[in-house]
Amino acid sequence: MKKVIIASLMILAPVVAQANSAGCGLGSTLFNGQSGIAPNVLAATTNGISGNQTFGMTTGTLGCDQNDTVSAAADSFLDANMERVARDMSTGQGEALETLAALIGIEEADKAAFYTVSHENFKKIYSRDDVTSGEVLASLKAVMQSDSVLAKYVA
Predict the structure, then answer these.
(1) How far is CA 121 from CA 47, 68, 74, in A?
(2) What is the pLDDT of residues 75-112, one digit of tens each?
(3) What is the pTM of this model?
(4) Phi, psi torsion values for 9, nearest 5 degrees
(5) Cα separations (Å) of 115 from 68, 96, 143?
(6) I want to staple 64 with a disulfide (CB 3.0 to 4.6 A). Which of 14, 56, 70, 97 is the partner?
(7) How far apart are CA 29 and CA 147, in angstroms?
(8) What is the distance between the terminal CA atoms of the chain, rounded to a whole angstrom?
(9) How many CB atoms within 10 Å of residue 146?
(10) Separation of alpha carbons 93 and 20, rounded Å
């Protein structure tokens, strides 16, 4: 029993570290109005397991605001999905990277360039193990600024 509890705590530790904002999604909707570490961890875990933030952002449901500013929405999404975005960026493809591109406002014609540039500059964008979502977004914007196709998305 002790091993199960220890394993559970080890699995939840990264979630607890980011539990101050679960973002939008099914978990945030289910635990709406509750405060404290436990409801935030459960909301973030439910959001992560169910993978429904993209749906919520697209449809404006599950507590996701379609009218949120692009940078705020991208920052919020990135904060809740750092590992998924890192995984996708490291390979140059994936749903999380596609969602981030949409939240930044990358046009369909420029998405291939966005995927390539983020993949080629992955080590600059995710510069260290404890990098924050704000730092990742700032590094991503700097990389985009230096690219002739993507610079127009960074004002």
Answers:
(1) 28, 27, 18
(2) 888 888 999 999 999 999 999 999 999 888 899 999 99
(3) 0.57
(4) -65, -40
(5) 23, 11, 12
(6) 56
(7) 39
(8) 54
(9) 12
(10) 28
